[in-house]
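Narrative of accomplishments. A recurring question from our advisory board has been how the design workflow behaves on a single, concrete structure rather than in aggregate. To address it, we present the structure tokens for one chain from the evaluation set, followed by the sequence designed for it. No filtering or post-editing was applied between the two.
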């Protein structure tokens, strides 16, 4: 009997028979661990307890205390939910579940009629019955013919179609609990009772295989956790997310709205334009110090440029393509990098000019599927704080360091903290020389560590042309977002034939960096609205000051104060309504105005104002001369002091 060795987290090793399961290892360690085990982890990858071990590995046993426990519980609850639907709606056809179980689970069903809220209540209750039965989950490898026979016997036509998607050389695994069975890779819990608490969230329509020409299916979303306490905490976060939803806040604060007349392209209202331009102006204010030159490239290109860059082959379906007047194929610009390569190649360059740093904010267009469009976070029309740097290879470390410094400055002004930094490495499909990829990946890791960050690795997640640094930010609801990115391009300089005259008089290929700090402005604004709840820093707030006259006799003085503020470049207005002061204060707070200036008889007589800071973000102050307050506000705005309190 062949043995393999299993290395445990405490450094100990176990010799076990080849083909033994993860669960058998847990049993060897101890009965309590075996009882509590949910899954295993090998080299960071979650594996099912029933999966056979075929070689020497380092293994962790995952229990409910592990941060990944929720993923396994949700994946298992997904199967229980599908089982409940089949019990209540026997003719329902089951399609597929969700691949990402970090927050929720889902299944798509073909049913005779749409699900109702009452149906969800019944399904959720039936899940309780199934969990109480406490059936064991099992994993079974099948031949393709065995799997066909299984799902044909169950009249699961959608499953038979999905079975055809599995490559011939890939193992086919089926997970069962009770009478339920489905194609799945796992992992799943040992027993149904390990699904501690669950909640069905909503039902929505979805096209089969994501194709709008196919029939509409019914998708049920839900979530689950090992304990009731974790579920309740999550539901509270979801409620907070609804309150902060950028689509709701954006409309309430009159920043933007979306309309079916232009799917995926938001309408920015005047206050939203102030916010948008404030971010753009902030980035532009840094360009002279960091050596960027702003350019504008065309909106429409012949598709040859995207064939040269490599984007056409991989992203053609995401591009807006059309036919020109001479039958040529043209496209709306989906990204800036090919245009910046075109500018660099338009004339000769010497090493004395390098680095060359091109920045651009022009509109980009990507043909996102209509079902994925969501407010500002997923759009078809967007802009990026995009830049591309062309430099000598030996100049790269300094350019990378400057990127980290610039990013830190921007995030400090915006009050963004707690980012985690990772490097994405090459995927199976990539352009360029593997040796160049190795050097680029190592260079990025060294730059991350030089900047003082712990560097995580995201294997296989790089773009086809470049490894990438990603600044991952978790918002107040603990949701992950990728903001700043930095890439070393190992393909486009060669594809575009970019050249410069080097120090030795010879012709050399420049290094090329892609960088963005905010990323998509639309997506960043969505994040920032939800992160702040609309409480923007004073320097960025669409309306910075509201003047609140106590009575009508103070209106004239209030208007003079407003005019003084406006002359100083401060965005201000006057609440002209004949309402009580308390009402006006509450209205200004609802509109997230950072500073309110109360003016009454005393202020009018003395030429002063009494500032009130929204929600007590700063201590209340006594009456101040108008000129003194204006000077203070001008300084705070110019310094971009982040005085917001979350």
């Amino acid at each position: 009997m062949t043995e393999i060795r299993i290395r445990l987290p405490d450094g100990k090793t176990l010799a076990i028979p080849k083909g033994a399961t993860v669960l058998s290892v847990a049993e060897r360690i101890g009965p309590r661990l075996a009882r509590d085990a949910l899954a295993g982890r090998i080299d960071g990858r979650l594996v099912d307890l029933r999966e056979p071990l075929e070689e020497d590995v380092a293994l962790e046993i995952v229990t409910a205390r592990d941060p990944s426990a929720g993923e396994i519980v949700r994946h298992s609850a997904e199967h229980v939910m599908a089982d409940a639907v089949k019990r209540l709606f026997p003719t329902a056809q089951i399609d597929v579940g969700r691949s990402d179980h970090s927050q929720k689970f889902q299944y798509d069903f073909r049913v005779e009629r749409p699900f109702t809220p009452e149906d969800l209540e019944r399904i959720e209750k039936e899940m309780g019955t199934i969990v109480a039965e406490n059936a064991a989950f099992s994993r079974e490898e099948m031949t393709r013919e065995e799997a066909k026979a299984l799902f044909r016997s169950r009249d699961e036509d959608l499953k038979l179609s999905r079975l055809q998607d599995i490559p011939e050389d890939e193992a086919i695994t089926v997970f069962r609990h009770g009478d339920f069975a489905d194609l799945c890779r796992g992992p799943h819990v040992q027993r149904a009772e390990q699904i501690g608490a669950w909640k069905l969230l909503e039902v929505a329509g979805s096209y089969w295989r994501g194709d709008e020409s196919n029939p509409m299916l019914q998708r049920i979303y839900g979530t689950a956790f090992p304990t009731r306490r974790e579920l309740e905490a999550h539901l509270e976060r979801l409620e907070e997310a609804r309150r902060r939803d950028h689509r709701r806040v954006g409309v309430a604060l009159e920043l933007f709205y979306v309309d079916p007349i232009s799917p995926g392209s938001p309408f920015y209202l005047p206050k939203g334009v102030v916010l948008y331009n404030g971010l753009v102006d902030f980035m532009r204010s840094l360009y002279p110090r960091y050596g960027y030159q702003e350019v504008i490239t065309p909106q429409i290109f012949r598709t040859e440029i995207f064939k040269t860059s490599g984007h056409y082959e991989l992203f053609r379906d995401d591009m807006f393509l059309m036919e020109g007047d001479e039958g040529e194929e043209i496209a709306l610009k989906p990204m800036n990098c090919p245009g910046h390569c075109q500018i660099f190649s338009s004339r000769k360059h010497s090493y004395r000019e390098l680095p060359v740093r091109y920045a651009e904010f022009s509109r980009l267009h990507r043909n996102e599927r209509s079902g994925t469009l969501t407010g500002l976070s997923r759009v078809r029309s967007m802009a990026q704080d995009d830049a591309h740097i062309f430099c000598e290879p030996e100049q790269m470390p300094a350019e990378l360091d400057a990127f980290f410094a610039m990013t830190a400055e921007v995030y400090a002004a915006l009050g963004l903290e707690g980012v985690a930094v990772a490097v994405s490495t090459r995927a199976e499909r990539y352009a360029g020389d593997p040796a160049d990829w190795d050097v680029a990946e190592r260079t990025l890791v060294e730059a991350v560590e030089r900047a003082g960050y712990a560097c995580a690795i995201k294997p296989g997640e790089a773009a086809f042309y470049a490894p990438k640094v990603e600044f991952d930010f978790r918002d107040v609801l603990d949701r992950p977002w990728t903001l700043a990115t930095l890439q070393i391009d190992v393909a486009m300089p060669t594809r575009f034939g970019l050249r410069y005259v080097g120090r030795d008089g010879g012709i050399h290929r420049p290094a090329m960096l892609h960088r963005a700090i905010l990323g998509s402005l639309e997506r960043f604004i969505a994040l920032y609205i939800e992160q702040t709840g609309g409480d923007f820093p004073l320097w960025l707030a669409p309306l910075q000051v509201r003047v609140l006259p106590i009575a009508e006799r103070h209106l004239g003085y209030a208007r003079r104060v407003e005019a003084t503020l406006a002359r100083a470049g401060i965005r201000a207005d006057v609440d002209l309504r004949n309402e009580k002061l308390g009402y006006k204060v509450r209205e200004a707070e609802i509109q997230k105005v950072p500073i309110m200036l109360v003016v009454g008889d005393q202020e009018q007589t003395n030429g002063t104002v009494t500032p009130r800071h929204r929600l007590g973000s700063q201590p209340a102050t006594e009456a101040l001369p108008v000129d003194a307050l204006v000077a203070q506000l001008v300084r705070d705005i110019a310094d971009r002091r982040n005085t917001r309190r979350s």
